[in-house]
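Please predict the structure of the following assembly.
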Amino acid sequence: KAGVTQTPRYLIKTRGQQVTLSCSPISGHRSVSWYQQTPGQGLQFLFEYFSETQRNKGNFPGRFSGRQFSNSRSEMNVSTLELGDSALYLCASSLPGQGGLGAGYTFGSGTRLTVV
Amino acid sequence: GEDVEQSLFLSVREGDSSVINCTYTDSSSTYLYWYKQEPGAGLQLLTYIFSNMDMKQDQRLTVLLNKKDKHLSLRIADTQTGDSAIYFCAESSGSSGTYKYIFGTGTRLKVLA
């Protein structure tokens, strides 16, 4: 079965612009979580969506937002980009409520965002 | 707050065993995980252990959990060059809908031929 698909794989944006990243989870997975990965900070949790509702949120400014559609596909948006937003953004899907219950996440390959 | 710590680097010779260590602070952890990240890829779940277990073996992988010391380790037997990657320890706690999931900073394993 198809894995978690993230698009685009690479993106270059300039400061002040906004960006939208997309994630299609594994079929049947209704929970989608987003992480930011940087060399200095490691993996930082952004938010989790389940049934089109944000269920958990990390400590990121309001410039970071997301949504989930009825087919479980999710998007995250970053507005007014800053240089420090350059990172690998990873999406992970899991069965309902299973991300924390042993089955773990299935991660996509990520979107590498570079802000110049 | 809760934290998960790992050493940054480990270098081993091909054929040797690798042991990657992790410490965590959340005493209410339910599951602990090991993920592997290869260059240009996302994280791949390798194995996990429930917090009431102290050992789990899966082919070349052995996970040891010392809950008293909040210490988790991953042993890779007969390490191969294809095992070179970053290994992340993670812990989760809570219940469906309210769980937390915290990753360590990752250990970069380099396998020397």
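Residues 32 and 38 of chain B are 20 Å apart (CA to CA). The mean pLDDT of chain B is 91.
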